[in-house]
Amino acid sequence: MNKKLSKPPIPLLSRRWARVGLIVLFTLSAISNLYAQDEQVNKSQFPQNLNSELRRNTWSIYAEGGLSWATDVWYQSFNAKRSYNQSPAVGGGIDFTIRPWVRVGVEYLWSRYRREQRFSSLNTQKMPVKVYGNYMMNFHNAKLGVQFNFMELWPHRRAQWFNAWMGTGIGYSFIKGNEYGMFFNNTMTQDGRTTPIGNNLIVNNESELSLTGNVRTTNQHEKFNKLFIPTVLHFEADVSRRFTIGLKGEMDWLLSRGGIAPKNYIFGLATIRYNFVSSRAKKLQTYYEGELSVLNDEVNEVQKETARYRDRADSEASERQRLEQLNADLQQRLLDSENSKSEGKAAIEISHYVQFVNNSASISKDELSHLKHFAAYMRGHQLSVIAEASTPGTTRYNQKLSERRLKHVIKALLKEGFVKENLHPQIAIGEQDGKPDETGRRVTIKLVK
Fold first, then answer.
1. pLDDT for 260 beyond 80
2. Into which CATH architecture does domain 348-449 fall?
3. Given pLDDT bands bounded at 50, 70 and 90, which one contains residue 327?
4. Which pick of 127, 143, 144, 443 has the fewest CB atoms within 10 Å?
5. Distance (Å, rounded) from C-alpha 338 to C-alpha 344?
6. Nearest CA to 184 among 128, 116, 258, 237?
7. Residue 58: partners with Cβ closer than 8 Å, 6 or more residues away
């Protein structure tokens, strides 16, 4: 049975594989650009599973597994199994994400590369004849790396759960294995001479031949350690706040090969990452606790302001009540004074008023001069002083204005030699008489006795 393929498999690093790889890379880049559309900056920022929230001064660990390839291995394969072209690879690492666009970390990877020699035809011209060979090397890769997230070129991208990292670093590879070989050594002894059997004879896998002789095997151990420079392209998607899955491609360039090490290692890996971040519930709890604290502070401030306004209103109400009571008492006293005048006696009223301009409590020079003359004439007598305000303006303002006018007149009389006991009663009635013109902008001084 002829098991030879009509078309050989595509070599791993051929141009056709390169075209396939470029198509996949451009497709992923197009998808990345599609998901990197800008979002509205003025959109309400409710606490969400954001990229900056998961990848800012955070730690993560990850496991990875897949396949590996080694290129330019010195041990050539002949009619080898297809499975020898690639090997399983497993590992893991720890990363620290400084900002959403950069992270650093350490990583470990284990894999191996194998080569096999299955000779379909044997050359018996020279003994011993190699009929089978196997070369297998296990390698352990440890590296320090830095990666950059080029998806962060879009500052307000919508799909922050999708990220694409590119990186490099420095690594060290520990490689150890063995080379196994099986050899036939057929000889013939005749007339005391020992010669190889099969001179000028070709033996292939379609021939039937019985051979006698020696079978020898060798198993040679090999090991070496090499520095390498890694290049990484890693696509990741967040499936939750704490778990991220991804696809990773890596090529390691070995330095100082020395003729025995491969040129590079190639990896195709799937990754799963655990992010050490707070849970969604805890994040929301922290957010709402902050919002409630702010609202409580605002409520307390409003309550304090309300209490201040309430105290001020109570104080003004009390003062208004006191002034109303005082005004009522003075009105009654005036009425009693008028009723006590003796009947039949002509009432001679001596009085003087100080005129003020509108919305003013200042005494003009002329009015002050008249007041001094009146004071000089009435010094030693008891006088009543009543201050008024005209009706324009609010009642409260007019009351205060009349009080200021009363105060200035009393001060002027005291300077002219009057004592407080002789200036009684002192009344500020505001706009109570309802005078709208200049007759309501006066302070009236009357002789009591």
1. yes
2. 2-Layer Sandwich (3.30)
3. confident
4. 144
5. 13
6. 128
7. 96, 97, 275, 276, 277
In this predicted model, which residue has the larger pLDDT, 148 or 131? 148
The domain limits of the chain are: 49-277, 280-339, 348-449
pLDDT at 3: 39
pTM over 0.85: no
Full 3-state SS string of the chain: CCCCCCCCCCCCCCHHHHHHHHHHHHHHHHHHHHHCCECCCCCCCCCCCCHHHHCCCEEEEEEEEEEEEEECCCCCCECCCHHHHCEEEEEEEEEEEEECCEEEEEEEEEEEEEEEEECCEEECCCCCEEEEEEEEEEEEEEEEEEEEEHHHHCCCECCCCEEEEEEEEEEEEEEEEEEEEEEEECEEEECCEEEECCCCCEEECCCCCCCCCEEEEEEEEEEEEEEEEEEEEEEEEECCCCEEEEEEEEEEEECCCCCCCCCEEEEEEEEEEEECCCCHHHHHHHHHHHHHHHHHHHHHHHHHHHHHHHHHHHHHHHHHHHHHHHHHHHHHHHHHHHHCCCCCCCCCCCEEEEECCCCCCCCCHHHHHHHHHHHHHHCCCCEEEEECCCCCCCHHHHHHHHHHHHHHHHHHHHHCCCCHHHEEEEEECCCCCCCCCHHHCEEEEEECC
Instruction: Given CATH 2.40.160.20, say whether it is the number of domain 49-277.
Output: yes
